[in-house]
Amino acid sequence: MSSRNPFIFVTLILFVICGSVLAQNDKFGKTDTLFAEPYRIDAKNWAVNVTLFNDEEIFALTIPLKFSAGKTQKIVVDSTIFKGGVADGFREKYARVDTATQCLTIGLLADLGISVPPIPPGKGRLATIFISSLDKSAIAQLDVDTTTTPPTNTLQMVKLPSDEVVPFFKILPAEKEKKAEKEEAKPAEPKGK
Question: Which 3 state secondary structure label does DSSP give 193?
Answer without folding.
Answer: coil
